[in-house]
Design a protein that fits this description.
Elements (H helix, E strand, L loop, with lengths): L1 E4 L4 E4 L4 H27 L2 E8 L6 E2 L2 E5 L3 E7 L12 E3 L4 H11 L13 E4 L8 E7 L4 E6 L10 E7 L5
Parallel strand pairs: 3-6, 5-11
Antiparallel strand pairs: 1-2, 3-4, 6-9, 7-8, 7-10, 10-11
Bound molecules: copper (II) ion.
């Protein structure tokens, strides 16, 4: 007889004969190995710290080009280094070719959404709004190798306040 242990979704046999016990081991061992591999992959994920800032009070990112390896867990800190102009900024990463469309969608989403359209699959990561002199941070897993645009989605900013995240292949750095 096989009973399903609902707590961890693992089939557990009712031990009644050595043969059945052997069968159970044979079936369970690959599952255990697979779980070990998944855990190891999560632990071994490379952690990368990225920092980016505004160019003071200007509508620009500094730097406007970031690099990280694919699959890395990226912790990005965004700092608003403005001193004089009280306007908020954010940092929004999009899939290639989508920056302009995301800027339009942000306008439609409005201020109440923090100028970030919720559930938009073209957006890979987005910080909250960041005020003058403040900083904010987010974590995300670096996508497949490629060049990904980022922009500030506050109205009118994205056309000039943008840059690229270059994601390199694993082991290429
Ligand atoms: Cu901005």
């Amino acid at each position: 007889m096989w009973n399903v242990n609902r707590q961890d979704d693992v089939l557990t046999p009712t031990p009644s004969s050595p043969r059945r016990r052997f069968l159970a081991l044979a079936l369970l061992t690959p599952v255990a190995i697979l779980r070990g591999r998944v855990r190891a992959a999560a632990e071994q994920r490379e952690h990368v710290e990225l920092t980016i800032a505004t160019d003071g009070d200007l509508l620009a990112f500094k730097p406007d080009r970031l690099t990280c390896p694919t699959g890395a867990l990226v912790h990005l800190t965004f700092q608003h280094t403005g001193k004089y102009i009280s306007q908020e900024h954010n940092w929004v990463l999009t899939i290639p070719g989508a920056a302009e469309a995301v800027a339009q969608a942000a306008l439609a989403a409005g201020e109440k959404s923090g100028w970030v359209p919720q559930g938009d699959r073209r957006i890979l990561a987005a910080t909250p709004q960041c005020g003058k002199g403040e900083h904010t941070s987010i974590s995300f897993v670096a996508p497949a190798p490629g060049t990904y645009p980022f922009l500030c989605t506050n109205p009118g900013h994205g056309a000039v306040m943008h840059g690229v995240l270059v994601v390199t292949p694993a082991g290429a750095h």
